[in-house]
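Service request form, structural biology core

Requester: graduate student, group of Dr. S.
Request type: structure prediction, single chain
Budget code: on file
Notes: please return the result as structure tokens.

Sequence provided:
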Amino acid sequence: MCQTKPTIMKTLQLTLICCFITVLSFGTVSTKEKDALVAIYNATNGASWNTTWNLDTPVNTWYGVVVSENKVIELNLQLNNLQGTLPNAIGDLVHLQKLNLFRNDISGTIPETISNLKNLKDLNLAFNKIEGKLPNTLAELSNLQSLQLFMNQLTGEIPASIGQLTQLETIELYNNHFSGSIPASIGNLTNLEVIDLSSNKLTGKLPSNVSNLKQLKTLSVFDNQLFGNLPATYGDLASLEDLVLSNNAFYGDLPSELANLTNLKTLLIGNNDFKGELAAFQQKFPNMIEFDFQNTGSRGVIVTLDSED
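Core staff response, request fulfilled:
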């Protein structure tokens, strides 16, 4: 039977409405996730961001927000003049895989609710004014691969629970106020390629089980209060390219096993109390680019302004 003209028009209208609804719904997210983003906006003076959000537009159009299958999976607001604190509601972004707030003016502490972000792979809160201790709940981020918290005002000890983050490849905590010893549990993180704990107030000896980290390329503990001998087992770090131990209180002879580190490009050991023929040590490393064993009595800081995207 042929449809009448009114019937055809009604069908077309319904089709157009359905298409319009589909277009509107593309890239939308749950109310809970949207509210969490709005809470971050309000808590960090969103109206004054370098690139701000129009809260009346769809979430997937907001600067730095990546939406996939109606879920917020990335929040990238680096260098965007965020001022204020991180709200507890950040823990409602449960599908987040990447959180990058590098180089803003964020203060306050890291919310305990960050432990809700079970899918998080990259966490970069570096170069802000964040203070307080690292929450123990951080250890619940079992998928975390990169932890960048450098250039903040974090205090307290590095929790032993960090050894539970077995997917970690990068840990950069330099230029904070961490104290206490380096937890031995760091030797559990066998995927680590970068450890940078420089310019803190760390004490004690280097954990000998760091030699378990066969993928490690960079180990930097410059400018702390660490002491003791350099463990001979560090000669097992076959992938190591950068070893930075300057400005501590290490002593004794450098272990001959270090000669096994044929990939070593940087060896900075000055301002310690190492003994032996240090000047000749460079000859043992065919790929050496930077070598410093001098004791100048000066202290300083390592500052890196670059950020992982």
